[in-house]
Amino acid sequence: MRPIWYFVGLILSIMGAIIELNGIYLLFYPSADKKVLSYLHPDIWWGGVMIIMGIIFILRNKDVKIL
Amino acid sequence: MSAIGLSFVDWLIIAVYFGFVIGIGFYLKKFTKNENDFFLAGRKNSSWVAGLAFLSANLGALEILGMTGNTFKYGMFVAHFYWIGAIPAMLFLGIYMMPFYYSGRIKSVPGYLKLRFDERTRVLNGIAFAIMTLLVSGINLYAMALVLHTFFGWSWHVSMWASALTVAVYVTLSGLMSAIFTEIIQFFLIWFGLFLVSVLGLIELGGIHQIMAKIPASFNTLWSTSGNPSQNGMMITWGGIALGLGFVLSFGYWTTDFLVVQRAFSAKDLRSARFAPIIASFFKMAIPFIVILAGLIALVLANDPKTGFHLLSDSGHINYDSAFPLLIARYYPVGLVGLGVTALLAGFMAGQAGNVSAFNTVWTYDIYKSIINKNASEAHLLWMGRVATIVGIIISLGTAYWAMSFPSIMDYMQAIFSWVNAPLFATMLLGMFVVWITPAGAFWGLITGMVSSILMYLAVKFSWISLSLITLSSPASDMAANFWRAWWAWLICFVVTIVISLFTKKKPKEELVGLVKGLTKENLNENVAFFKRPEFLALISLIILILLNIYFW
Fold it and tell me: With the C-alpha atoms ordered B203, B206, B212, B214, is the resulting torsion angle positive or negative?
C-alpha cells in the first residue's frame, strides 16, 4: 500500500497546479472583481508553494510501500 | 445576507477533492481484509500518521469557524483552548495514560473500562458515547449545511446529502484507515487553504504588533486580565480557565474521548502510540496562528470603518461565524476561494468520518458484541461495522434535519461534552492510578457525575438556580458556565467513586496487571537515548507552551 504522504503530495500538486495556472491567466486577463492585496498575486506564489510541497511529498514516497 | 460566488475553477478544485477521497476509499478497500484493518487501521501507522490524525479528528471546520468567531467575540482568551486547554492533556496521555490503554490491546475506551472495572461500566459509557457521537455528528452536518447555505447559497439538502453520502462511501469501504487518510489530507488542506488568510491579513494590517496595538487590553492578553472577570472578554477568572478548561474539559476530551484516542490506538507499537499525541501537541499549538490570528484580524478590520469590513448579521444579531468566510472573500481570488471552501468542506467531512468511525467501533464491540451477540465471528463483526457506518450516517442525517427544525439544539453541543467526558475523566484517572477503586465505585460515580452535569445545565437554563452559584463569580459568560460545570461534574464523580470504593468489593490485583499504575511495567525506555524518548519531546512541547503563555501574558 502506498503511504498517505504520497496522496498528500498528489492532491497538493493537482490543486496547486490549478491555482497556479488560473493565477497566470488572471495576470494577463485580470478579473473585474478586485480583491484586497490582489496586486500581490497570492494565487501565483501560493500555488507555486503547493506544487513544490506536493512534488517533494511525491518524490520522497514514490517508491515507498507499507505492509 | 450575501452569498460568496464560486467560479468554474473553484468548483473544479472542490470536485478534485470529492473525487480524491472517494478514490482513496476504493483504493484502500483491497487492503481492508479483517476487523483489525477496519476498526484499527491494521495497527500499522507510524507516530506521525497517528499523531496528525489524532489532531485532525478534532480540527473540524465548525471549530475553525467557531473559534475565529469566538476570538472576535472574546479576544485572545480563546487561545486557551489550544494551549493550556489542550497541550498538558495531550502530553499526559502520551506519557502516562497510553501504556495502560495500549498494553491491554483494547479496541475502544469503553473496552478499557470493561477490563479495569466491569461490563456495566463499559456498556454505560459505550451507550453514552454512541449517543453523543451521533448527536454531534448530526449537528455538525446541520452546521455544515448552514454555513454552505449562508455563505455560498448552496441548497441545504444537497449539501447534507452529498457530504453524508461521500463519507458513507469511503468509511464503509475501508473504515478507520480511510478516515485517517482523509483526516491527514484535511490537515494539509486546512493549512494550505486557510493559513494564507492570516498571512494576507498581517500584510494588510502591518504585522502582529500593529494588530495588537489596535485591540483593547481586555482582548489582547491571555492571563493578565484573568484576575477580574469584568476585565476580560470571556468574563471568566483564571480559576475557571485552569480548573474547568485546563484540567477537566481538556483532560476529559483529549485523554478519554474515543474519537481522538482511537487514532493513537492505530499506531504500530506502544512507542509510536505514545509519540502520537506528543507530536500532535506541536501542531495544536500552531493552530492559533490560523484561527486566533484571523479572528483578531477580523476584529481590527471591523473596528475601522475605512476598511469596509463588517460581519454579517441575522435579524440584528451579529453572526460571528461569518468572520472567516468574509476574510476569504476579502483576500482570495478565484481558485484560492475554491481551495478555502474545500478546506472547510474537508474539515466538515473529516469530522463526520471521525464521528462515524468511532461510533461504528463502539457500537460493534461495546454494545453489539457485549450485549446482543456475544459469540459473533470476526467476519460478522466486520460486516456489522459496515452496517453500523451506514446506519450511523442515516441517524446523523436524521439528527441534522431535527436540528434544522429545532435550531436551539446547537446550544446543547458544548454542554454534551461536559455531560459525558468530564465525569469519565475522573473515572479513568482513578481507574488508572488507584488500585483500590472498585467496579461499583466507578459505575455509580460515573452515573452520578453525568446526571449532576445534566442537572446543573438544566438548572441554569431554566433559572432554577443562579449562574453565579456554578461559576463562583459574576458576571459570567456561557463559556465560563461550561468550564465550571465540567469542574463540578468531575469533582462529584471523583468523590462519589472514592467513597463507594471504600465500601465495596475490589477486583483481584492479578486481573489488573497492565491496566493500573503500580501493576504495569514502568520502564518503557530501556536502551533508548534520552533525546529519542517521548518524555524529551514532551518536555520541549511544554517549554514552548510556557514561552507562548509568557509572550502573550
Answer: negative
CA distance A12 to B185: 9
The ranges assigned to domains in chain A are 4-61
Using a cut of 0.90, tell me whether the model's pTM lies above it. Answer: no
pLDDT at B1 over 50: no
Q: What is the CATH number of the domain that holds B346?
A: 1.20.1730.10
Tell whether B139 is covered by a domain: yes
Contacts of B334 in chain A (CB under 8 A): 22, 26, 31, 43
Average pLDDT of chain B to the nearest whole number = 86
Cα(B102)–Cα(B109) distance, integer angstroms: 10
Residue B413 CA to residue B410 CA, distance in Å, equals 6
Please give the pLDDT value at position B380.
92
Does the distance separating the beta carbons of B334 and A15 come in below 8 Å? no
Reported as a single tens digit per residue, the pLDDT across B312-331 is 777 777 878 888 888 998 99
B342/A42 Cβ within 8 A = no
Domain of residue B80, residue span: 8-551
Per-residue DSSP letter, B477: -
- Residues on chain A touching B204 (C-beta within 8 angstroms): 36-37
pLDDT-derived band at B540 (thresholds 50, 70, 90) equals very high
**Residue B1 within any structural domain of the chain:** no
- Most confident region among A4-18, B259-273, B501-515 by mean pLDDT: A4-18
Q: Does B203 touch chain A (CB under 8 A)?
A: yes
DSSP class per residue in B119-130: HHHHHHHHHHHH
Alpha-carbon span B335 to A16, nearest angstrom: 9
> Sign of torsion, CA A44 A46 A52 A55?
negative
DSSP 8-class letter at B473: S
Banded pLDDT at B77 (limits 50, 70, 90): confident
Residue B541 lies in a domain: yes
Cis amide leading into B475 (omega within 30): yes
CB count in 10 Å sphere of residue B293: 22
Q: Which of A46-50, B68-72, B238-242 has the highest mean pLDDT?
A: A46-50
User: Residue B457 falls within a domain, yes or no?
Assistant: yes
Q: Nearest CA to CA, how far is B395 from chain A (Å)?
A: 30
- pLDDT of B2 reads 54
Name the domain count of chain B.
1
* B150 neighbors B1 (Cβ within 8 angstroms): yes
Residue B180: closest C-alpha in chain A: A4
